[in-house]
């Protein structure tokens, strides 16, 4: 993120679901990492967690992102990320990491449509801007950052973070489960009526 001072920084958000007294020792090490500008720990309703980022994305502003999974954040990946992020066209744009793994990785990939369960992080730049005249520059920045990190990617992507990126990226999202999902699609929706989505074509 870009701080109000114009300096680059990063923000860590974490959620512990359980008894507050059990969660505090889990969360506190993150709150004391480095020299934080601000830190906050509080119990909040689940709905508030789900809507916590809404204020960052007001209606009417322009957004573009491009995502991929990573196995790890290596030193080389960090160098590529920092170099690319420094070229962001404005101070609103973000580089987001979401930690996955954990309970996700304890379920076999074949047990649900969600594949890529061996990934450790979901990584995506989010370009944010106002003026349509700046569309090309902002979208190019996000794509360039994505390409810079591509050598460190698992090749997979979280379907919820896909834009209109073509059939191949949809296959990347569902991995080895795609063929089974296409067979189900052929049985229950052979005409592909439900297609305004990250579409799995009937095969």
Written account of the structure:
This protein is of the alpha+beta class and 203 residues long. It is built from six helices and four strands. The chain has helices at 20-31, 46-50, 75-85, 135-149, 167-174, 178-188; strands spanning 62-65, 68-70, 94-99, 121-129. Strands 1, 2, 3 and 4 form a four-stranded antiparallel β-sheet that branches. Helix 3 packs antiparallel against helix 4 (135-149). The radius of gyration is 19 Å and the shape is globular.
Provide a brief overview of the structure.
This protein is α+β, with helices and mostly antiparallel strands and 203 residues long. Helix content is 31%, strand content 11%.
- The CATH top-level class label of the largest domain: Alpha Beta
How many E strands?
A: 4
Q: In percent, how much strand structure appears in the residues? A: 5-15%
**Helix fraction?**
25-40%
Total count of helical runs of at least 4 residues = 6
Mean pLDDT: 93
The count of domains is 2
Distance between the termini: 43 Å
Radius of gyration: 19 Å
**What composes the largest sheet?**
4 strands, antiparallel
Question: Could you say what the CATH architecture of the largest domain is?
Answer: 3-Layer(aba) Sandwich
Overall geometry: globular
Unreliable stretches (pLDDT < 50, length at least 5) are: none
Structural class: alpha+beta
Element pattern in H and E:
HHEEHEEHHH
CATH-derived topology of the largest domain: Vanillyl-alcohol Oxidase, Chain A, domain 3
